[in-house]
Structure formats: C-alpha cells, structure tokens
Design brief:
Number of strands: 23
Oligomer: single chain
Distance between the termini: 50 Å
CATH class of one domain: Mainly Beta
Helix content: 10-25%
Number of helices: 11
Shape: globular
CATH topology of one domain: Glucose Permease (Domain IIA)
Structural class: alpha+beta
Largest sheet: 9 strands, antiparallel
Length: 518
C-alpha cells in the first residue's frame, strides 16, 4: 500500500491533460486508480482558493507543542519541549515568505482574523519579524523545533559556490564511480545529482546528505544491495535508479515546502497511516524535511530520526557544517518588497500566440503555480519543432542550455541561485542559445517544441525563481509579461492574463479567448 500510494503521488504531476506536464517522468494511462488519484489530489494539492486544505486532517498525538514563534533550532538528543496548552491567541513573529493567505491555512483561520499593531499587506509578503496575533483553534500538533533553514532546501545563494562533483570526488564513496543512463545519456553519479538540483531547484547539499544518510553512497559503500536500484528507499519498481529516486525525493520536499508557503499543506501522513498536525510556527524548510521523512517511518521512529542523538540534522551538520550559519548570510532571502523586473511576452513583437496553459507547477508536483505555457497560434497539433522563435523576456546571462531547458539570470550573474532567474522549457536542440550568452530583451532563445520534461504539444513553458525559490504566477510577486498580469485559477492550467480590462484565459485549444498579441 505504501509503494502504491507513493507512486500515485508521483503520477499526480502528469495526471492533468494539458499541453504541458513538465515533470520529468512519463504518465500512467491506467484508469484503475482514478478515484485514488482524485482523493490524493484533494488532500495534497487543494486549489489555492479552496478552504478544504490539509488543515482539516485529524491531529495525531503531539510530539511537542512549544508555542514560541521565534524558531528554536534542533539540538540532537536534547529533550523536546513538552506539549502545553496555549491561550486564546498565538503570538507569532512573521518569517520570510509569509503571506496572510499562507498563515491562515497553517493556523486554520480566516485571513481577516490575523492582526498586528502595524498594517498587514493584503497579498504581498509580511515583513519578517513583524509580530502577529492569531486565534488559537488548533488541537495537538507536532514539534516546533526547526530542522533546516529554507535556504538549505532550495538551490539558494548558500549553494551558489558549491561544487557537487568536487565534493563527491573528495568523499571517495560509491557515488563517485556510479554511472546511469538518463534519457539516453550516460551520466555519472555527481552529474545526476547536479541535474536534479538544476531541474528542480533543490539544494545539492541536501540531496547528497539524504543519499548518504539513507544509503551511504557518498562517503562509503552501500551495505544494502537493494539500494542499487532504490538508494533513497522509495522502492517503486516503475522508478528505478538514482535519477528517479532523487526526483521523487525532490517532489516530497517540494510538496511540504511550497504547500507550507501557500497554507494548503498542514498535516503529515506516516508510513503506519497515522497523522500529525504540523506545528504552525515552523519554517517551510523544516516542514519539507518532516514531510519527506514521514514517508519512510512510523511516527515514533520519525521523531527519533529527526530529533534524536543520531538525527538527520546532526548528520547534515557533520557533513556540511552549520547550515544556520550559512543561512544567516542570506536570509531572509525573499525581500518584503519583492517585485519582478520588467519582462516581455516570450515571442517576437507583432505576433499572436496562444496561452495554452494558465498558472501551473513551475517544475513538477507541488512546486509553486508559477508556470505559463505559450504556443504559436498556427502550431500544428501534437509534437514537433516550430519555426517560430521563443525570445528573451528580459536581458540576462544564459546559465544552462540543455535537455530542452534554458535558464537566464536576469541580474547577469553567473549562477542560477542568486536573484531573479527565468526558465524557458521545451526549447528544441537546434538553434538553442548557448550557455554564457548575454541576452538582450527580444533576442532569440530557440524554437518551441516538446523537448525536455513531458509535453503533449509544441509550446514553451516559462517560470521564475528568486534566490532559488520557485515563484507563483500570482501573489505575492505577480508574473507580468508585456503588461499582462497573471492570475491563478481554481485548477492547474486554468487562470488568466489580464491587461487594460482585457482577459486571456488559459486554454488547450487555439480559440479566440486564448489568443494573445504582443
């Protein structure tokens, strides 16, 4: 049952029939599990406008329930704070990335019930450190001791100078000599880790630590022969090998991280089917780790692995040094006044394309609904390479150009971890812009196609990151292209772009409501 459930969670990213499904796995055509998929969709990925989110799952036995909102970091082996009853209000100190909608989901209240002595932004980011009062309607919940900072989960500025291959080579373990075929390419172990980090924007330090903690691949040799096919331990025969296992790992982290940001995810489901309400004071990075480890362990084992003497956080610090010290140099890495730079539609001026997909996953299951899909108005059905050009939305430096993916740092910095980065996906191999190219707005990037990820029709998928974190197309930093402002819909691929009273809706067919002229 556990394996089946995990497989269904992975497949959810490709369940929606649309012109884009940018999760790098194939999708199942079986209809036998439709009801189970729908149930999982409702539980794990509720719509942003729905009140039916994970905050309604029954609470399990609380491991701890400290109500201090200043994050207490984990001390391996130290006793967790005992559960105690709070008063009628939580006193909460805002964290980087908090919004009213996200806090309302986490605390199980209406946004209007969150109050502060200072004005609160209706849709933007709440200034980090601002003191809030929130009604207490929660029962028991889990530990409020932080595990890892947010910047250690996403591929953030703390990892901008980290050399994955050099670290693995110096460690001298099994991973250094490992090879695997991925999409008809022979890749080394370090290359696979780096590819997953680049594609999913997951911190490579975290991927390496999880691989070593679960299978001893980085600094040693695997003791369990089963780890050759399933090094992290998901064990789904449809997804064998390091690349697939790391992608599932990233998905579980992503579901917790971005679900916590939006307030749509607030409960853990353990391997023994018990549940636990997440402590609402935690940061997104800690929730991501909690969610991943709940996949593998019963609740009591989970508490030991994350908070005991030989915990994963202790292992992580021994492997890579103090993550909180690194975080102190960059966090909060989402500024309160975050706003994207000017950007244009990703095709040549004077042309008409179609918005084939409204806001949906930036990259795979659970990531921020930050992706938009565009296709030439005259594109033929199915997959092919269009002669039309995808053009640069803004000036910047091309960092990656491979596997259908082009990433551009809009500040001109030579990495994908600092500042605004735009992703263009499904760019054909032929004529694709080279890494290291300095782009101006409207410069050619390549031709829309189906290359990279999974796609059912020729198009380009565009999304944004800031300091390594996928940004939603709507609030708190709306995606604006040539004056068209994105709005999220109630479902993936729905939603719209609006400009001067005109609205274009995301559609899967080339009808007039999806046509957009630049």
């Amino acid at each position: 049952m556990k394996k089946r459930t995990l497989r269904l969670v992975v497949l959810l990213g490709c369940f929606v029939l649309a012109l884009a499904c940018n999760f790098p796995f194939g999708s199942s055509t079986s209809t036998a599990n439709t009801a189970a998929r729908e149930t999982l969709t409702a539980r794990l990925f509720p719509s942003p406008t729905s009140s039916n989110n994970r905050s309604t799952v029954p609470a399990g036995t609380a491991v701890a329930g400290g109500f201090s909102t200043d994050l207490q970091t984990v001390v391996p082996g130290a006793p967790l704070p005992s559960n105690r009853t709070a008063g009628p209000l939580f006193s909460y100190s805002a964290q980087s990335g908090d919004t009213l909608a996200g806090l309302a989901g986490r605390f199980g209240v209406d946004p209007s019930e969150v109050s502060s002595a200072r004005a609160l932004p209706a849709a933007g980011l709440i200034p980090a450190g601002q003191l809030l009062s929130i009604p207490n309607r929660l029962g028991a919940f889990g530990p409020g001791v932080a595990l890892l900072p947010d910047s250690e989960i996403v591929y953030s500025p703390t990892a901008a100078g980290f050399d994955t291959a050099a670290f693995v080579r110096a460690a001298g373990g099994f991973l250094n000599d490992y090879t695997e075929t991925v999409a008809k390419q022979s890749l080394s172990g370090p290359q696979i880790v780096q590819r997953v980090a680049d594609e999913t924007s997951t911190n490579p330090r975290l991927l390496l630590a999880l691989l070593d903690y679960r299978a001893h691949w980085v600094t040693g040799q695997p003791a369990d022969p089963n780890s050759l096919d399933f090094p992290i331990g998901f064990g789904d025969p449809a997804y064998k090998g390091l690349y697939e296992e790391l992608n599932i790992t990233s998905r579980q982290l992503t579901i917790g991280y971005y679900g916590w940001r939006t307030g749509s995810f607030s409960g853990l489901l353990f391997s023994d089917k018990s549940t636990l309400r997440i402590n609402p004071n935690l940061n997104a990075g800690s929730v991501a780790v909690q969610n991943l480890f709940s996949t593998f362990y019963h609740q009591d084992e989970w508490a030991r692995v994350l908070y005991g003497p030989n915990s994963f956080p202790a292992f992580y610090q021994k492997m890579f040094g103090d993550p909180w010290q690194r975080a102190a140099a960059v966090e909060p890495f989402l500024p309160d006044n975050l706003k994207q730079p000017p950007m244009e539609l990703p095709f040549q001026p004077g042309l008409t394309w179609t918005l084939t997909g409204g806001p949906h996953d930036s990259w795979g299951v659970g990531s921020a609904w930050g992706g938009l899909d565009f296709a030439p108005a005259n594109v033929a059905p199915g997959c092919g390479v269009s002669p039309e050009w995808v053009t640069a939305s803004a000036p910047g430096l091309v960092i990656l150009s491979e596997n259908g993916m082009v990433t551009v740092n809009l500040q001109g910095q030579a990495n994908n971890q600092v500042g605004w980065v735009e992703l263009y996906l499904h760019i054909a191999d032929q004529d694709r812009v080279a890494p290291g190219t300095h782009l101006r707005t409207n410069d050619r990037i390549g031709h829309p196609s189906c290359v990279g990820g999974v796609a059912t029709g020729t198009h380009v998928h565009v999304a944004r990151k800031y300091n390594g974190e996928w940004m939603a197309a709507g609030q708190p930093a709306p995606f604006v292209l040539s004056g068209w402002t994105a709005s999220l819909g109630s479902k993936l691929y729905h939603g719209s772009l609006t400009k001067a009273g005109q609205t274009v809706t995301g559609r899967l067919d080339n009808i007039h409501t999806s046509l957009i002229n630049r």
